[in-house]
Design brief:
Helix content: 25-40%
Oligomer: single chain
Number of domains: 1
Shape: globular
Largest sheet: 9 strands, parallel
Number of helices: 12
Strand content: 5-15%
Distance between the termini: 23 Å
CATH topology: TIM Barrel
Strand order of the largest sheet: 3-2-1-9-8-7-6-5-4
Radius of gyration: 21 Å
CATH architecture: Alpha-Beta Barrel
Length: 379
Amino acid sequence: MVRRYFSSVLCTVLIMTLCASCNKYDGKPALGGWENLGKDEPGTPDDPGNPDSPDDPEEGPYFKMRGLVLGWSEVSNPSVIDYVKIAKENGINTFSIYGAPRTTQVWADFQKKCADAGIDLEFEEHMMSFLLPRDLFDTHPEYFRMDENGNRTKDANGCPSSEGALEQVRKNAREIGLNYEPTNDKYYFWLDDGGDICHCPKCKDLNASDQALIFENEVIKSLKTINPNAKLAHLCYFNTLYAPKVTEPHPDIFLEFAPFYRTWAEPLANTWAKGNNGLSHADYLKALKENLDVFPAETAQVLEYWMDDSLFSGWDQNNLVEVPWKSEVFLSDINTYASYGIRYITCYAAYVGPSYVLKFGYPYFLEEYGQGLLNYEKK
């Protein structure tokens, strides 16, 4: 790998450029309003690395999706860090962008750059508050979840046993989908981030994944009325880590496994290792296997955090820490995922933008990530 070292002169230029134009992003990735998503997304030409191209699955790179999840502030200053160039040179073929000014010319220009480079654009977001708006609570509390004390609450998610709630979700999913067009037909309408589920008499025997899937089954059916090729993620994360027990997923719902509480100091193959919530890597791999008994491995996707500096910095962009990248952990992990038949991988690189470059220098791990996935050979 060719490494580019910054001279002191270039660092000075970077500082001046950064001070003039660096965007700030506050807090965790969040959608500022679905109406800002825009309607006009460019098409992407078929490419051997395009995860949804009709190529023979045994041809081309083993990992069909080699993605990054990024905030607009990370990608909007290419004079400091040019993500499109990095992606094109290192086999990264998918961006999921949050916080973009989607009705502006600068966004349209970025879309074109991605299309010209063969990079798919998609959008991964927690969407439940848009599918089931909280302002409905005053008139329809029955649409929302019941807590363990028997009280309806609008703090998170909804009641999947409420036909009124499902009707709202269907209607809003279609409306949002009309303004939300990924170039690879993959949609991500995640439930509320870490939010509790419904405990009403009809829902109490359904686990979190069952409840999520009831909503997701309605969402994908609605999306297919506007895009027959639509596919929808089921996020396996926090309380939806464990496989559904009774709800069957629609055939076009794919698993997205997100091991948020693992430790990145050790590879997943070290099953004794534990993250900060007490779950071991053995627990995570058991959950993955059980989910793959429900969802097909050939469409399953991993959402990783190897490079997520928002996580490592405690979502405080004013106090960035250096990404604790370990090549040996990454390479071991992708081999573990391949052993489960997984061929789609994306990873947060939040906060790895101009401010990061100014503080820590060029993030060479982005190249190692792309090249590692691009050149992987299954063992």
